[in-house]
Amino acid sequence: MTSQGTLITALSMQEVAPELNKLTSKGCSRARNFLLSHIHSLNKPKTNVNLYQETILVKYKELLMFIRENS
Fold first, then answer.
1. Beta 6-7 vs 2-3: how paired, if at all?
2. What is the value of pTM for the model shown?
3. What is the structure's pLDDT at 1?
4. Which residues does residue 3 pair with via DSSP β-bridges, in sequence order?
5. What is the distance between the alpha carbons of residues 21 and 70, in angstroms, rounded to a whole number?
6. Minimal CA–CA distance to 35: which of 8, 58, 12, 3?
7. What are phi and psi of 5, to 5 degrees?
8. Contact 31, 67 (CB under 8 A)
9. What's the pLDDT at 7?
10. How far apart are CA 67 and CA 28, in angstroms?
């Protein structure tokens, strides 16, 4: 059984891997929805996009990296 390109040999890891994959998928979908809600707030009139990007969206850089790596 393989998980993200590595061979799983331990019996305990074989038991936990499916649940871990489910949790990772759920975390990615929640993080994606959270980031999309922030991006949709840029559509409001009189929004300073540059300021919003520099102050709010930069804080969630690690969250975006998590989504890229795990989804």
1. antiparallel
2. 0.73
3. 47
4. 6
5. 9
6. 58
7. 85, -5
8. yes
9. 65
10. 5
Question: What confidence score (pLDDT) does residue 47 get?
Answer: 87
The answer to whether the beta carbons of residues 44 and 12 sit under 8 Å apart is no
Pull the structure tokens for residue 2: 């393989």
pLDDT tens-digit profile, the chain (71 residues): 455 556 667 888 888 989 999 999 999 999 999 999 999 988 988 889 999 989 989 999 999 999 999 98
Could you tell me the residue ranges of all domains in the chain?
25-71
Using the 8-state DSSP alphabet, how is residue 48 labeled?
Answer: -
Residue 32 identity (one-letter amino acid): R
Cα separation, 43 vs 22, whole angstroms: 33
Q: Rounded distance, CA 68 to CA 11, Å? A: 29
Question: Measured between alpha carbons, how far is 18 from 3 in angstroms, rounded to an integer?
Answer: 9
Segment (H or E) for 43: none
